[in-house]
Amino acid sequence: MRLAETLTEHGLTLKAQRDAMREGKILGWECTACRHRAITPTARCAKCGSDKVTTATFANDGKVVTFTIQTVASEQFLNEVPFAWVVVELDGGPRVSGWVPFVSRPGDLPVGQRVRFTPSYKPGMMFEKT
Question: Which residue range(s) make up the domain with 81?
Answer without folding.
Answer: 61-129
